[in-house]
Design brief:
heterodimer; A: 295 residues; MetI-like fold; two-stranded antiparallel sheet; 13 helices; B: mainly alpha; 2 domains
Chain lengths: 295, 287
């Protein structure tokens, strides 16, 4: 995480004492809600992943059995590889497209502001609504020209999800890249021009290295967004056909809430999911941060 | 001299071409929304058969889809919209008030407990919702946090991480000297926070508020699992319900309700675009 907790704490003892008097007022509401909404469910979730249960009243300790079952579950593994493939492709497309659009928009072409407004707009739409908008449109195209539907063909489902996510997120990432590009000091580019650098050299040796912090943020956001995708997946394909387009989050949801004999497996899957997300986040930050430091 | 004017003329031509290209791209970009708008005035079978045609005399149904969507089923849409509004307003207000106070205290006092809470907040941002969804919905049930008036507490809990982090990022830049001055003038901590810091943080409140509004308004799974579903729905739940229910799907009503859901968002976006983009950028600092 970028911002270290560099605090300007209060040093004046009397002031500090008067502040501590109000600690319950300042901290308690957030702290209590945080315990209810995060800390307790999180701990209980880890605990329950070692139990067989259908309701919380009857739980049986089964050790690592749920984890074994999760890894033996074919649909879970398929969802994992589907999610990985989806994430790799969507991260690549979204970031390349967002950077390209941001690059052109910061060149000062006519109508930049209007374009920015339009490209960003899909981001305001929620996942469920997005899913149904694109289901109607893509099915319209697929039925007419390809003689199938999203629900019948997993390949169309996969690319449909990619199209949907690109439409939603390119604008968001574009905004971040635009900010990054605008922060590049004009002197750098001027100096390079005086030294006789051409447009492509400036792009590769000045522009791209200078926006590495934006690249870090955008890849982090697109990686975790794609990997954790749920609403869009549920609305667009719902996993059809035969759970072939199920991503990890939806797979976990299904093992909790559809015809389940043991919710512990779902909870074990959720823990595995959580660990994978944390590993991806840390690895990605480590990787791009070291890149940034080199520049 | 002539060389530079050549180059600038070439750049101008390239820029003009780019403007044309981007205009086409922008039209493609808003096309999905236009198609939904057009379809919301067509009959259900026409939407399924010819989704890309403009309505004609046979397929045009006027406001019928809107009327049907509003009152169809045993659960009227306006109730869902009302609950969405109540939940969003209350949750965001609660999150802004409580987390800004907590972030300020954490930053200024910086005791061991404060540090623990701060790092827990950062940690919570990486945890996927699926990890806690089952246990969170059970906890919320047990504590009766399953109504539109109480679910804001759940939102405060699950959304605290990002909000505390964002507020903390801004509070760091406020010099404590002015608070010391307020202390000398006889303000206690509460007065200092509300009279000195809160006005300074105005734009941060707007940015964080917009991020939280976009989250809560569009959120599907959390309210779906936490709310007492027999009595309360939100807009995303309602739209999922219109589509996902067994039997005949009313495409017309779905298109109309999607438009009802989009219109306020787009209006707000057009009105306060600057703030929204600032909110996005302040949220992007995370990571």
């Amino acid at each position: 995480m970028k911002t270290r907790h560099s605090s300007k704490s209060v040093r004046n003892p009397s002031q500090l004492r008067s502040m501590r008097m109000f600690a319950p007022l300042f901290l308690m509401p957030t702290f209590l809600a945080f315990c209810i909404g995060f800390v307790w469910p999180f701990l209980q979730g880890i605990y329950l992943s070692f139990f067989r249960f259908k309701t919380l009243r009857f739980t049986t300790f089964v050790g690592l059995d749920n984890y074994k079952q999760a890894f033996a579950d074919e649909s879970f593994l398929r969802a994992f590889f589907f999610t990985v493939a989806f994430t790799v492709i969507s991260v690549a497309i979204i970031n390349l497209a967002a950077f390209a659009i941001a690059y052109v928009l910061t060149k000062g072409i006519a109508g930049s502001t209007l374009f920015r407004t339009i490209f960003f707009m899909p981001n305001l739409i929620g996942g469920i609504v997005l899913g149904y908008i694109w289901k109607m449109i893509l099915d319209g195209v697929i039925i007419r020209f390809l003689g199938s539907t999203l629900a019948l063909n997993a390949t169309y489902g996969f690319w449909g999800l990619i199209v949907l996510l690109c439409w939603q997120q390119i604008g968001y990432m574009m905004i971040i890249y635009v900010a990054g590009l605008q922060n590049i000091p004009v002197e750098y580019v001027e100096a390079a021009k005086i030294d006789g650098a051409n447009g492509r050299q400036i792009l590769w040796h000045i522009t791209i290295p200078s926006v590495m912090p934006s690249v870090t943020i955008c890849t982090f956001l697109t990686l975790t967004n794609s990997f954790k995708l749920f609403d869009q997946n549920l609305a667009l394909t719902g996993g059809a056909p035969f759970r072939q387009t199920e991503m990890l989050a939806l797979n976990i949801y299904q093992s909790f809430y559809t015809s389940t004999t043991n919710m512990g497996v779902g909870q074990a899957k959720a823990v595995i999911f959580f660990v994978v997300v944390v590993i991806i986040a840390l690895a990605q930050l480590y990787f791009t941060r070291s890149k940034e430091a080199q520049e | 001299m002539s060389r530079t004017s050549d180059i600038s003329r070439r750049t101008r031509t390239v820029n003009r071409l780019l403007t044309v290209l981007f205009s086409v791209l922008a039209i493609v970009w808003i096309l999905p929304i236009v198609i939904v708008l057009v379809n919301s005035f067509k009959g259900s079978s026409a939407i399924a058969l010819t989704p890309f045609q403009l309505p004609n005399a046979d397929t045009f149904v006027g406001w019928q889809n809107y009327v049907n969507g509003m009152k169809n089923g045993n659960y009227p849409f306006y109730l869902s919209a009302l609950y969405s509004l109540v939940i969003t307003v209350l949750s965001v207000a609660l999150i802004l008030l409580c987390t800004s106070m907590a972030a300020w205290y954490i930053n200024r006092v910086n005791s061991f407990f404060c540090k623990v809470m701060y790092y827990l907040c950062i940690f919570s941002m990486v945890v996927p919702f699926q990890m806690v969804m089952f246990t969170l919905s059970k906890t919320a049930d047990a504590l009766q946090l399953n109504t539109p008036l109480t679910i804001p507490i759940v939102y405060l809990g699950f959304g605290a991480g990002l909000a505390v982090f964002l507020f903390n990022g801004f509070i760091k830049s406020i010099p404590p000297d002015i608070e010391e001055a307020a202390d000398i003038d006889g303000c206690n901590a509460v007065q200092t926070f509300f009279l000195v810091d809160m006005p300074i943080m105005r734009s941060t409140y707007i940015s964080v508020g917009i991020l939280e509004i976009m989250w809560v308004w569009n959120d599907y799974l959390l309210p779906y699992l936490v709310l007492d579903r027999t009595r309360y729905m939100t807009i995303p739940i309602h739209i999922q319900f219109l589509q996902g229910s067994f039997g005949r799907v009313d495409y017309g009503a779905t298109m109309a309700m999607i438009m009802m859901c989009l219109t306020p968002i787009v209006l707000i976006y057009v009105l306060c675009q600057r703030h929204i983009i600032k909110g996005v950028l302040s949220g992007a600092v995370k990571g």
